[in-house]
Inverse folding.
């Protein structure tokens, strides 16, 4: 199969290229053209008129969520919506049969709505990142598809794996210093997406005749923040240092942090302790998957082992 990957030099793009390259003819689109990295023909965004005929397009390119909140809102829409329009318009005119767009669960909700996030929840994103992803989704769905074409909008939970530089890496770095985790009194459940499970799902979408639609993607099991802390400490060879400080005291410290602009604020406390559970039932039914190949625990251990090697 001939596959075009946008954002081929990124974290997911690199893992996807390595996974598909042995049995497929791959092409890339990215900001910088680095054909030495993947040994595939890579095009700049200004070269879309010269793209080759392919069977499928996987659109990964976009601006990631800015956890520091310093990025200008217009940049999210310029990149996440603008690039999507460019490549999707190309897809509609091309001979490609499948288009896979990487959106995010944040296109639906930044904070959990109900107990489990399904595809039926009415999207109400609040951040520029989430709103730009939803706007790109709407643009795709507004277009009528020519006969024989299929479109898959994927909303992954937080993706992790070797080469990832996200929040897990930050937590890993903090715990490696021996600092105890002080929020043991809070229990939450969160969905994640290990890169191996994500690649497995993408391969199924390329192979099978799956109906056009919007699909959540995540691991089968959830993990609590305390679970992650224990797994990280085990990976580091350290004993668990989890303090069960009473919740009222933690909330008081967070309110003080709001006033004094300290590291622990009410908003950061909410993000660290809230639950965010995502259902993957729809994508598993559509691709006839009973159980994803990698457990949430095993996937996390693989990611953490890569941190140990690279640090």
């Amino acid at each position: 199969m001939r596959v075009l990957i946008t954002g081929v030099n990124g974290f997911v793009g690199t893992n996807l290229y390595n996974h598909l390259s042995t049995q497929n003819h791959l092409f890339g689109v990215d900001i910088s053209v680095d054909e030495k990295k993947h040994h595939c023909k890579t095009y700049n965004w200004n070269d879309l008129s010269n793209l080759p005929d392919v069977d499928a397009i996987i659109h990964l390119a976009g601006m990631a969520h800015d956890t520091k909140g310093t990025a200008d809102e217009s940049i999210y829409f310029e990149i996440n919506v603008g690039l999507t329009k460019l490549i999707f318009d190309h897809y509609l005119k091309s001979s490609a049969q499948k288009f896979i767009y990487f959106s995010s669960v944040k296109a639906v909700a930044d904070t959990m709505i109900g107990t489990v996030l399904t595809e039926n929840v009415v999207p109400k994103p609040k951040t520029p990142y989430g709103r730009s992803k939803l706007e790109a989704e709407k643009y795709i769905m507004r277009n009528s598809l020519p006969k024989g074409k299929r479109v898959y909008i994927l909303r992954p939970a937080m993706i992790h794996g070797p080469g990832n530089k996200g929040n897990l890496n930050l937590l890993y770095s903090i715990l490696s210093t021996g600092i105890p985790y002080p929020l043991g009194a809070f229990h939450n459940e969160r969905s994640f997406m290990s890169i191996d499970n994500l690649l497995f799902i993408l391969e199924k979408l390329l192979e099978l005749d799956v109906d056009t639609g919007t699909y959540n993607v995540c691991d089968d099991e959830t993990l609590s923040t305390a679970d992650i802390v224990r797994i990280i400490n085990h990976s580091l060879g350290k004993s668990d240092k989890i303090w069960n400080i009473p919740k009222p005291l933690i909330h008081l410290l967070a309110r003080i942090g709001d006033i004094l602009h300290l590291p622990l604020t009410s908003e950061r406390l909410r993000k660290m302790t809230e639950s965010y559970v995502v259902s993957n039932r729809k994508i598993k039914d559509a691709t006839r998957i009973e159980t994803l190949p990698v457990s949430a625990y095993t996937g996390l251990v693989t990611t953490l082992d890569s941190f140990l090697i690279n640090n």
In short: The radius of gyration is 20 Å. The mean pLDDT is 92.
